[in-house]
Amino acid sequence: MQASSAPVSVKKKLVIMGKSGAGKTSMRSLIFSNYTANDTRRLGATIDVEHSTVQFMGDLNLNIWDCGGQHKYLDNYLNEQKENIFGNVEVLIYVFDLETTNRESEYKLYDECLHNLEAYSRDAKVYCLVHKIDKVAEDQKEATVESYRRALAKRSELFQPGVYGTSIWDHTLYRAWSQIVYTLVPNMAVIKQHLMNFCRLTDAAEVVLFERATFLVVCCTAAGGGDEDAITSKYMGVSQVIKMYRNMCLQCQSPFRDIQVRNKHYTLFIEPFTKSTYILVITVDPEIEPAVTKANIDAAKNHFIKLAD
Prior knowledge:
Elements lengths: L9 E8 L6 H9 L16 E8 L3 E8 L3 H8 L3 H5 L4 E7 L5 H18 L4 E7 L9 H13 L8 E5 L5 H11 L5 H14 L4 E6 L5 E6 L5 H24 L7 E4 L4 E8 L2 E7 L6 H19 L1
Parallel strand pairs: 1-3, 1-4, 4-5, 5-6
Antiparallel strand pairs: 2-3, 7-8, 7-11, 9-10, 10-11
Helix pairs in contact: 6-8, 7-9
């Protein structure tokens, strides 16, 4: 009998933890359920654990456990249900509420989460989101996040968390979640290398791959290398704007498909690419006709379908 060549679905467990009111469900709804920041105001408190499975980048399924933060549930997670909650975890996302009046109690809960994670999922990755960063003055934001980063680095030798300041009101949430999901895509290094080759062969200035449903940045590259962090940060804002625009299109019953912009400085394309991605391509050479860039995008689709889908 000939073996089946059907792709094997990969499921990865993400646990979102934090105290009640930290904004866990709001951020999840914004990223994965096409909510706007204003829409999240009508969300109620999460009761116990809310499970959802999101298909991301082809055959990768994110199994998201959004854990309610009321005291009675937290006590249950850390004791009676600890093996169920913290077993087989790929990523733990702990959300710190900047509006808390008792940071030490937050640290204590975080320590207990890490203790259970060490017992049941020692290979898990940990990310800490210092949430509601919009409440902090602009010139104090980096210092605020850095104070959390230093404090959290001392709390565990096994887990060294990625720490990000986030808000539902700007692109910081997209940046953090893009970094998180980047680590989960199994063949990301291969995808990135081929994206760099595409950029070079087509004489593009910048190329960005977005996940289709969430519009999170999957990876990006620029001619001559460039500052990847700066490029990534720039396109986090694009993620947010495109997602808002797409929602507006849906409300008008006019589905979003693509965008083309041409001016004296550059030509920009945002196009459906594979089943699970969109691609953004920017060219700055006026000699390159838009039709040629469009043809290059179309020609590369089948190749990237094998990598990304």
